[in-house]
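Retro notes, item 3 of 5
We never archived the inputs for the zinc ion complex last cycle. Fixing that now. Sequence and ligand:
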Amino acid sequence: MLPYRILSWLTEVYPFAALAFYIGLAMFTFAVCFLIPALAIVILMFSIFFLVPAVAFFRVLKMIEAWLARNQISRHRCPCCGEELQGAEEVDCLVCGIAWDPQGTKVTA
Ligand SMILES: [Zn+2]
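Structure as it came back at the time:
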């Protein structure tokens, strides 16, 4: 329940945090590129290759989130608030109003 909520929050914030990190990096690179051009090239290369582990980590977070949700749904508990669940195919919680599909991903109504 609590680990799911933390992970759910993380997967919502993560893309924006990554974007902010890249914008900050771009501003830093612009500030530094006239003084130390070599560093700017290094940062550029780093930022391109850093995308792969950043996206991979995001996928892993999403997988763990879905796994936790499936785990709770199989016990007929809402992954978010822990209340008893109703519904058969698409599981939805009457208390917090969130629905999940059988794969464990949130379905926004
Ligand atoms: Zn709920």
